[in-house]
Amino acid sequence: MQFEPNFWQTKSLLEMTDSEWEALCDGCGKCCYRKYIQGRGKRQKLYYTRIACNLLNLETGKCGHYEARFRLEKDCTKLTKKNLPDFHWLPATCAYRLLYEGKALPKWHPLISGDEQSVKNAGIFIADGVHENDVIDWFEFVIDEE
Ligand code: SF4
């Protein structure tokens, strides 16, 4: 797919075409790892974990049942322009969150590097992920990330 050069710098998220929007995803798979919120109000904290959705391929970071994901996983969330304001739960490296917050894409993003492997090479993938079905105590799998 050919895109306008540096479209992520010249267009707002709302101005992007569907294919440009899709191309923003770096394929890290981090949005498919479980999170939980503890506390309320100012004390509220979002925790990220190494616990993956059962549909996630832990090696590739891709959904194993992409077409059927909303039917198979009731809480699977589609990232759209409409729910942009809710993207604060996305990992800090996520292109949608970065652009929404007015930040630049990192050099390892495939749109810049031209190489899908650059995400893995930059250490963005979650190492030692486990599927939710295999977990008893979530607290053992919390990772330190904002
Ligand atoms: S966290 Fe963002 S960049 Fe990574 S897979 Fe999810 S939507 Fe794509």
TrEMBL record:
It holds the Pfam family CxxCxxCC. It comes from the Bacteria. InterPro entries: Puta_zinc/iron-chelating_dom, UCP006173. Belongs to the UPF0260 family. PANTHER family: UPF0260 PROTEIN YCGN. This is UPF0260 protein BKK50_09645. It comes from Rodentibacter rarus.
